[in-house]
Specification:
By secondary structure, the chain is mostly helical. About 65% of the residues lie in helices and about 5% in strands. A two-stranded antiparallel ribbon has the order 1-2. The longest helix has 28 residues, at about 60-90. The two termini are about 20 Å apart.
Length: about 170
């Protein structure tokens, strides 16, 4: 089930990526600055996180890590502060799965938290695939901290990058 969630999340990200590409353009969004979105309907941080996931899905693991690292200083701390605020206020994390329109709107309002969570997921999974065990453990720990981050699947539901990171980090600590 967790693997299916991860794969569906990747599929969701790939679908979002298609929105970036111009129909006749041969230039890939991956050749652009991963911190700057060329699509006015896609925020810079969303472009960054989905670019990292696209690279992961293409098994370009080192490039995925580099993409996350390139922009993390821009958004990582703010995303982490958003998560900390939710912890400090005792707020519950949003549900995963199918949610109401009201809940979707609330999840979407945490856009930066969601983007940082997804980017950390791509980095952790990429480092794991590269057999860089200690850096992968550190990235998984960062991903786990972003517990309330959610990723949208185009099939109409949300999944948790942190929950998927929890599953995969077990392989490294057992």
């Amino acid at each position: 089930m967790k693997t299916r969630i991860a794969l569906l999340g990747i599929a969701a990200t790939l679908c979002m990526t298609l929105a970036w590409a111009e129909d006749d353009s041969e230039e890939s969004p991956l050749s652009e600055d991963p911190c700057i979105s060329g699509n006015p309907t896609l925020s810079d941080s969303a472009f960054w996180s989905t670019t990292a996931v696209e690279l992961f899905s293409k098994k370009q693991y080192a490039e995925a890590v580099a993409t996350v690292d390139a922009c993390f200083p821009q958004w990582g701390a703010t995303g982490g502060h958003q998560q900390k605020k939710l912890y400090d206020e005792g707020k519950k994390c949003p549900k995963t799965g199918a949610v109401s329109k009201k809940a979707k709107k609330k999840i979407d309002s945490n856009g930066l938290l969601n983007d940082v969570s997804l980017a950390l997921w791509a980095k952790a999974r990429s480092l794991h695939e590269l057999d860089q065990i200690e850096p992968a453990k550190n990235a998984y720990a960062q991903c786990l901290y972003m517990k309330c981050g959610r990723a949208w699947d185009p099939n109409g539901w949300f999944w948790s990058p942190a929950e998927d990171c929890a599953v995969h980090v077990q392989e490294l600590i057992e």
